[in-house]
Structures
1.
Amino acid sequence: MQTRRYHHGDLRAALLTRAEQTLREKGPGALSLRELARDLGVSHAAPSRHFKDKQALLDALALAGFERLDEALATSRKAAGETFADRLGGLVRAYVDFAVANAELLDLMYTVKHDPAASEALITAAQRLGATAVELVAEGQRSGEVREGPVDDIGMPVFTTLHGFASFAVSSVLSAEEVESGLDAVIAYMVRGCAPS
């Protein structure tokens, strides 16, 4: 009889990688710490050193997703031009690209962040996403490219439009061609909605 080992180098990272693969292929219902351990060739108890239960694993997956999304948005910001329209366009494209490439993960991120058991780190990471959009609007107001008014009131329609378009993109309501051609129109719509009167 072959005994399963515990040592696996960085087991936590391996569990998260395999869990995200399972999430993408089969959905969150198929995630099981015991199955992940079997897939990685470690004892069924080994994952418990890193995740006390499946919810802790989902929480960690969602947190990793928010961190990757935050990094993608920060990268888009550095690459964007100086105008509000350029910076907003970069943010929109980065968000939609992330959503299309990580549809199941993005769905999990928004589901788990609303769970009453969500960790403080996860809640903070989710709030950083909103803060990025709010700061973009505030910068636009300071440069005179965005109308005056409460930043949240201006930013909310921008973010809901963005998330709605991304949702259509990942659910195949829009074809890949419609997503690509529609992005410019959506960005222009958001810019008009933010513009001074």
Note: The helical segments are 11-26, 33-40, 54-79, 84-101, 103-112, 120-142, 151-170, 176-194.
2.
Amino acid sequence: MSSSQTWDDVDTYFTTHLSPDDAALEAALRDSEANELPHINVAANQGKLLQLLALVQGARRILEIGTLGGYSTIWLARALPADGRLISLEYSPEYAEVACRNIARAGLDPLVEVRVGAALDSLPRLADENPEPFDLVFIDADKANNPHYVEWALRLTRAGSLIIVDNVVRGGRVADADSTEPDVLGTRAAIELIATHPKLDGTAIQTVGTKGYDGFALARVVD
């Protein structure tokens, strides 16, 4: 049996028992596929991990950078209390339309706001609103801008907040110090920012599964 088949089988086993998709999540995936969104959403067990991290964090306010079809948004929003708030930033109006439909179907639209436009344009406007600090930030957008997203996450959080950066392994290319590829350069810069910034304490984990070989970085904002 190939490694990828083994990864798929193990993920299927874990997902079936610990993080099965329900009607709203399944519909979100179907709607995303029907509208030809790229198949880059988090896996079900990864979505459940995001939800658990938000619950452990006691998150009331969540910022997501990169909405896609709203699948991860649904997982995260389900961790919020009734007075919680999730703001998700999506570059593509077409993707945002699909996401808003999926979020509404899941009954979470009272808690979620999707803002359309380039995140590096939306984030300064968000900061100008002087919002209550976010308890958790999930970064899953264009990888070249990862260090900028981490810097903005720092501005919009507080001591004790959690920052998650997805897809940091880049198929192993993140270890290539000579790479000139924008996604690798951006990811390496984000990792090095987490490593050196006095207000961040973090780590990164490699993963395998239905999404292949990948991983994520996890950083806590410290005093």
Note: The beta strands are 61-65, 85-90, 112-116, 134-139, 157-166, 200-209, 212-221.
3.
Amino acid sequence: MAVTADSLADRFTRWCESVVAWLPWGLDRIVPATFLGFALINSFTFGVDLVLLTMFHGWWNWPVPVSITLAYICAFGLAFVLNRTFNFHSHAPVGRQAAVYVVVVIINYLAFILGVGGGLTALGLEYHLARLLAGACEALYMYSTMRWIVFRKRSTPTPARAI
């Protein structure tokens, strides 16, 4: 009798699947377990982002753009590792995924962090609130790109049939 060890990542995925299975109104058929996993992981890393932002700007008085950028880089690096391991269980070469992820993150950074977050701060909105609003926009973008671009499942080619 073979015994296989369950990894922490496997348990995380099974837990997400079981929670999604309990969603009401047919949502269990619409919401993928990876969406819940993404929400949990990225909520945690967003918290890391806000803590770092508070340290850099609130405590150390670094300029807002520098503080946002450094906090963002740290949080998104952590999000990549956690999502790759726990949520999407990717075994593809990390180099290509990391390169694609960097492009996705740069687009996200320019559009949502600097565009929405920095823009709202420049308009006078408190920087934490501006960051929260930008975070809501970026969450939808990041999940979509991580699921369907960065960590997409590659189909294995089917062998050609002899005629």
Note: Residues 94-122 form the longest helix (29 residues).
4.
Amino acid sequence: MSSRLTGVGVGPGDPELVTVKGVNALRAAEVVVVPVLDTGERGRAEATVLHYVPAEKVVRVVFALNERTDRKRREAAWDAAGERVAGLLRERGSVAFATIGDPNVYSTFTYLAQTVGELVPGLRVETVPGITAMQDLAARSGAVLTEGTEPLTLVPVTAGSAVLKEALAGPGTVVAYKFGRQAGEVAAALRETGRLDDAVWGSALGLADESMRSAAEMDGTPLPYLSTLIAPPRRAGGRGGKL
């Protein structure tokens, strides 16, 4: 029988936002791998998983999740993590990898699956979708992500504030991920494009240290790294105006 690696999206942090299918996949796997920083601190994926599976079933694997400058160190960490997961697959046959958000949206799972696929012949890779931070923030803030024919643009601000500014100059809603360290530049881009007043940001949604504010309150102070921003377009024409 072939080995199976399943990427399971466990949502943005609120344990109640894991889908039934996601919970079933976590419980069905022989082992559940969770990514951790080399500092060893418990991440959101691990904290969420422990609501649904016993701790003895969880294996913590170190990833260079916060490494952006040293490519060699980052790739060495990916290789080591891939070897560890490949070993678990050879021993147990079925491994679930828990990732915050969705496994197909800016997820470490993409790189892991690619690495492990080269190490384990005949590997079956599956994913279980998860609720994203932008969906959770939209629900909590009342922001409407799209109407009618509007596009939706998702930008990781780690790509630079210029990419965000270009998106804000276009139509439709713009969502920014991982913008906390560049909050000042993001606020300036929102102001320049006339999007500041209607935009909202949030972090740690559904958790004890949750923050959710109007973007107009940003004063340039760095925010949590995993902050999410929603900047809707100006909508006119009443109900169905964008149809």
Note: The first strand starts at residue 4 and ends at 9.
